[in-house]
Amino acid sequence: MSKMLKVLIVDDDAVSRTVLKTMIHWESAGFYIMEDAHNGNHAVQLIQKETPDIIITDINMPGLNGIGLIEYLEKNFPQISIIALSAYDDFDYVRQSMKNGAMDYVLKHRLDASFLLNILNTARNSIHSYWNERDRQSNIDKELTTSKAVLRQTFIRKLLEGSLSDVEEITGRLHALDVKLETENLMVTIAEIDDFRLLEEKFSSQEVDVVLHTFMEISKEILKDWEKSVIVHMAKGKFAIIFSLGPLKSTMYIYNTLYTILNRVRSEIKKYLNITACFGVSKVCTELTKLPQAYNHAETVLRDKFYKGKNSIFIESTPHKKDESFFCLDIKDEKAIYAALKNQDEKEVKSRLDVIFGKISSMRLGSKSTQMICAELINIVNKICKDTGIEIARLYTAEDIPYNLIQKYETLMDIKAWVVNLYDKLISMLRLMKLESGLSNITKKAVEYIHRNYSSDFSLKDVADFAGASSSYISRLFKEECRIGFAEYLNHVRVEYAKQCIENGELKLKEIVSSVGFNNYNYFFKVFREVTGMTPLEYEQSCRK
């Protein structure tokens, strides 16, 4: 259904206005009378509040007459269709009104319903043609703007990648694409969204695109404060920003000003997107053709993220070891860690891990070397599991391959936290096994049943039937041998599995409640706090940190 067109009637004679308003059934014909005015001045006041599509105006009126109104409309509202009315068959009026923009001129004594409808339909066709042309032009403008933006991004990427080398060609394209950069004294910054791979796993591709687009728009808005700069999305969660420095000032001034701008970007993306990013800043680049070297330098500087952590701005880089010179665990360290694990000596294990990761940091080893060392640490865990009969599946979720997991982390701090957490889990299981080693066969069977079925709803009688004893006997044995009641032991087991689920971060808290065997969230909340000393939400936040 087409849109109803708004009509304004302008005539100093009230009877004439009434005749026009009652001559046809306006709404049935697709029009409605929004207002009527008694002269041109009154009409201007109404138009400024709401713009009509069609104006039917008398020519002879006191104050601002029809000719004056038509001149005003042609200058300020050329899109309005105008129909001029007069009681006089005067050629000068006709010529003047048509010259100034009236689409038709009608003598009042000749006007009837049929004639009025014909004129209105002609006006409607003219208005629709105007709208279609306006929309077509708007679409063309949007396509041109989008196309130019895409060409600009492609050009900047090629410039940074070193695909362009001719200075005249580069300068010409800078001008043609309206890229606000000078040809000398430039600086490149690489912005990299932290944990982007984890972001891709957590959200759909459309949601990730929204994050990237919003990051770009926030950055563009803040970069307006720098006279000449441009930002381009390079790949995945990585962006490059080129700054024109203008006449060179002190290095300290440049870095301080740049740091202020980048820190604002960092603050705003945290505020609006709840993400963080790291920034690597190059040295000053003296000419356009050397931008690829500046880009490579910014990438080198950004590698400090691996050692210094996320949500940071890096300006000076620290020399890195080449990944080819692998550093392996000393056989003495392997044996010492193995022995400490067997003895459940948590303090010694953490001390050894601190030394190993401290060595990685001080030697500035690359990510590949670090992954090799972590693979050896994982092998120690797997060997302990094999020697003690612990199921490895209890340490990792079904989908996780530990060697792949460590590759997802971008900083040494995150990798170390993952390894330490893995060792903590193993020590907890070894302690549980040590407890179970002194149990009678019946209690061992009861414990086995609990670990196999903790996610289900079962009773003490179910456990007693499996162990081949009465419920009262099982209950008494539990208190004697485990020094803890059956229900309390079950809750401890369920909380331990809940902690693992929270650490993995794959399920929401309400999903975890049922997956570990609790039927009531409030009860789960209460038990979790009793066992761990913190609420599930507090534990989740501590894991994120």
Automatic annotation (TrEMBL):
Residues 6-123 form the Response regulatory domain. Residues 184-318 form the GGDEF domain. The modification 4-aspartylphosphate is found at D58. Residues 444-542 form the HTH araC/xylS-type domain. Keywords: DNA-binding, Phosphoprotein, Transcription, Transcription regulation. InterPro entries: CdaR_GGDEF, CheY-like_superfamily, GGDEF_dom, Homeodomain-like_sf, HTH_AraC, Nucleotide_cyclase, Rev_trsase/Diguanyl_cyclase, Sig_transdc_resp-reg_receiver. This is Response regulator.
